[in-house]
Design brief:
alpha/beta; Rossmann fold; 2 domains; six-stranded parallel sheet; 13 helices; globular
Length: about 350
């Protein structure tokens, strides 16, 4: 254990910094769970990008969530700086004993240093090998094994200098109000009893399966007697994709809540489903965290890093059925559907297996 008397404080205050996307935030929860297990009475705060707040705000072990709003830039230089300074001042006033910086941005290092916490741990990133990065932290955790680790394991390795036993469970939290709001939407559409959730969209369409193939899969499940609820984000292209899929399916027992749910409400819906079918996206990670039976479809993503952690179900990788480009070489704006190599029969069989 890193020897520092401040970590024995009766009211230990900890700040976790991670400035990334929604899925990244969900996969930080094992660190939070590990800290709570080690220090049951600690105050654990999180600093994140404001738009990802929904992923963590209902977590029972988090005391307070602080957000950096990227819309501050639209306020003009003066107001932007004022907002940043207010945040820095607020964080410094918390008198943290321990800061864990999981981010790789210079901004996160400066914030860690500015808190004045006596223990500040960051990662020893290759691209940050310099005096300034080191000066912002009191300790750097090694990253030499990160290329062979899942993102969950990478995050947990920040605690190596503390020798905190890892709790590797990912937590997707929502409130009773979230589920109540979802239940009302289901009732309004005449949905009662059991249902399957299908999330065919991602903000990057190269991660999506063909609409026709998804419609065929849904049709097979409808013919088995199942009710299917489709979900997506509010983006116009995603909503069009949902409409195309539904129009290619029989009209009985297929419904859409696309663009109608917050992320926490989507979590509540997935938690109450008999099965989740989806592509490499945030909802897939939510389904794995909630232990909902899951069929996850993957294309040219780094499986080692991003496969659903502790999934209750099956991951089907398009690379088993055809060549895929290197994940680092993919043009994210491409219209190529790499997942189309996955046969419908394979997905239907996996879904039936999960439902049996």
């Amino acid at each position: 254990m890193m020897m520092n008397n401040s970590l024995n404080a009766p009211e230990l205050r900890i700040l976790l910094i991670k400035l990334r996307h929604h899925g990244d935030m969900l996969l930080t929860t094992p660190v939070i769970n590990s800290l709570r297990e080690r220090w049951p009475s600690a105050q654990i705060d999180v600093l994140l990008y404001e738009e990802t707040r929904d992923m963590l705000i209902a977590h029972p072990d988090i005391h307070k969530v602080y957000g950096i709003d990227r819309k501050w830039k639209q306020l003009g230089a003066g107001k932007h700086l004022q907002k940043e300074w207010q945040l820095l001042t607020t964080l410094r006033e918390q008198h943290y004993h321990l800061v864990l910086n999981l981010a790789d941005q210079w901004r996160s290092a400066v914030i860690a240093r500015f808190t004045g916490a006596p223990v500040r741990i960051g990662f020893d990133f290759n691209k940050r090998r310099g005096l300034f990065w080191r000066a912002c932290h009191t300790e750097l955790a090694p990253v030499s094994a990160h290329q062979q680790m899942h993102t969950v394991e990478q995050n947990l390795s920040i605690m190596a200098p503390l020798e905190v036993p890892p709790v590797s469970t990912v937590s997707m939290s929502y409130t009773s109000d979230d589920w109540h709001a979802v239940a009302e939407k289901l009732t309004a559409q005449g949905i009662s009893g059991h249902f399957i959730v299908v999330q065919p969209t991602s903000r990057w369409f190269f991660k999506c399966w063909g609409e026709g193939q998804m419609a065929q899969t849904i049709t097979a499940l409808q013919q088995d007697g199942h009710t299917v609820v489709l979900t997506s984000g509010p983006d116009k292209k995603e909503l069009e994709m949902i409409d195309n899929i539904i129009s290619a399916c029989p009209q009985e027992r297929v419904f859409s809540l696309a663009g109608q749910l917050t992320l926490r409400q989507l979590g509540a819906l997935i938690d109450h489903a008999d099965l989740f079918i989806g592509v490499d996206s945030v909802p897939m990670h939510m389904a794995a965290a909630l232990q909902t039976p899951c069929v996850a479809l993957f294309g040219p993503s780094k499986l080692t890093f991003w496969s659903p952690w502790q999934v209750n179900g099956e991951v089907i990788w398009a690379g088993e059925y055809g060549p895929l480009p290197d994940p680092d070489a993919v043009d994210t704006r491409t219209k190529e559907r790499y997942l189309n190599a996955i046969p419908v029969e394979r997905v239907v069989a996996a879904a039936r297996k999960c439902l049996s």
